[in-house]
Write a structure and sequence with these properties.
- With 112 residues, the chain is of the alpha+beta class.
- Helices cover 22% and strands 37% of the residues.
- The strands form two sheets. Strands 2-5-1-6 form a four-stranded antiparallel sheet, covered by helices on one side. A two-stranded antiparallel sheet has the order 3-4.
- Helix 1 (13-22) runs antiparallel to helix 2.
């Protein structure tokens, strides 16, 4: 099993969720986060005063999938979330040692 963590622009969330559902992803966790990468934040003007925005709002997706689906999920996120502008996000793929469904006690791929 693989854990896919993706940090994306918030307005892309619904489009990414729909694309992942279409390829068979059955669940995901979403968290609102703030961060910065290459863009290192930006400046904005509010009521005539300029101020620095050091952390940019993002959403974090966490999805656990069987090994065979991981590459397709990562590719679907990449193509759907892409805007060709700085700050599109990152995708990380990690190994998952075990998964357990709390309700039934199923383990491994059956728990997904």
């Amino acid at each position: 099993m693989k854990l896919i963590i993706a940090a994306l622009k918030p307005y892309k969330l619904d489009e990414v969720r729909e694309a992942l559902t279409a390829i068979g992803v059955r669940g995901m966790m979403v968290t609102e986060i703030k961060g910065f990468g290459s863009q290192s934040g930006h400046t904005e003007i509010y009521r005539g005063a300029e101020y620095a925005v050091n952390f940019v709002p993002k959403v974090r997706l966490e999805i656990v999938v069987p090994d065979g689906l991981a590459e397709q999920v990562a590719d679907t996120i990449r193509t759907t979330a892409r805007t060709d502008k700085i700050g599109d996000g990152k995708i990380f793929v990690l190994d998952v040692e075990q998964a357990v469904r709390v309700r039934t006690g199923e383990t491994g791929d059956d728990a997904l």
